[in-house]
Amino acid sequence: MHISTSRAADLLALVTLCTGAVFGCGSEREAGSTAEIAGNRARQVAAAWDGSQAADAWRAGYYPMGGAVQLPLGGLRSQADKRAYEAQNLLLQGELPTTWPKDGRVTWAGGTSLTRPLLGAKTAYTALARSRVEAKPHLTVTGAQLGEMTLATSRGPATVPAWLFTVRGYDAPLKIAAADPSKLPGSPIRPARDIPAGQLAPLDRLVQIEEDRRSLTVIAIHGACDDGPAVDVLETRGSVVLSASVKDPKTGNCTAQAKTKHVTVKLERPVHDRVLLDAYTGRPVPYGHPNEPSPSWS
């Protein structure tokens, strides 16, 4: 687990094909409409993953798809506390446990379980408390103990070990998942190459799967000279492939400015255990919220 930072700038660099122009430079290496190019790539990604060893490994692993951090029951009560949390201004005034079990058990409905290494309390705290100096406003943490929390995963809801941090002024703890996610299997397909800028782009992250698992919200990237992002979906028996592009990209000089936008995608049937894939990267779409620890597999 590591501190989540914006991935937009890094991802934007992957699709910047001309100096000084973002999502605006054409390419003569692959012809066709955006829908044709994205559709062809999505089918290639689905074909590579469906029935692969990588897909089997994904379904057997522990990959969080819900917030690794759960606020105290009822949420943060004041605007000052909310600002402190968003700025990751936490102040430790107390002792954190220095010993803990090496491994813990992640358990799904029906009793299926998986043993995973556990992160220490200090590691979990440091991932959330980005500020290293006392700042105001801040949340004061006075201690922690190992407990449990329920977390959405690629295999459905699971009960996972968690560090329960005591926050001054709150009766309920702030919880941070302690189980280390499984290692991401190597993708059976390489990232996209030689595709015109704007006609296919990497997604930033997945931020929400609704309870019915048929509605997904992702953060998509676009540039300063277009009409925003679009996300198309290809559903197969074993995967859901999301293809991100931009609407009406302009040609000519354009500032290298990355913008992000939440896009909701509706599926024909629930995700279930299908692998949620990014057509551009050929990899599972990483889950994560700003200001929270990201899964290590992202």
Structure description:
- The chain has 298 residues and is of the alpha+beta class.
- The protein is 16% helix and 31% strand.
- The protein is built from five helices and 15 strands.
- The strands form four sheets. Strands 2, 3, 4, 5, 6, 7 and 8 form a seven-stranded mixed beta sheet that branches.
- A hairpin with a 2-residue loop joins strand 6 and strand 7.
- The N and C termini lie close together (9 Å).
Percent helix range = 10-25%
Annotation field: number of helices: 5
Distance between the termini: 9 Å
Specify the overall morphology. Answer: globular
Largest sheet: 7 strands, mixed
Structural class: alpha+beta
Q: How many DSSP-defined strands? A: 15
Instruction: Average the pLDDT over all residues and give the rounded result.
Output: 83
Low-confidence segments, given as residue ranges, are 1-6, 12-30
Helix-strand sequence = EHHHEHEEEHEEEEEEEEEE
Instruction: Give the strand content.
Output: 25-35%
**Global Rg:** 21 Å
SSE arrangement:
Blueprint: E1 2-3, H1 8-14, H2 34-49, H3 53-60, E2 69-70, H4 79-86, E3 90-92, E4 103-108, E5 113-117, H5 121-128, E6 139-153, E7 156-167, E8 174-177, E9 205-209, E10 215-222, E11 229-235, E12 239-246, E13 259-266, E14 275-278, E15 293-294
Parallel strand pairs: 3-6, 12-14
Antiparallel strand pairs: 1-15, 2-8, 4-5, 4-7, 6-7, 7-8, 9-10, 10-13, 11-12
Provide the descriptors you would attach to this structure in a database record.
alpha+beta, 15 strands, seven-stranded mixed beta sheet, disordered N terminus, 16% helix, 298 residues, 5 helices, single chain
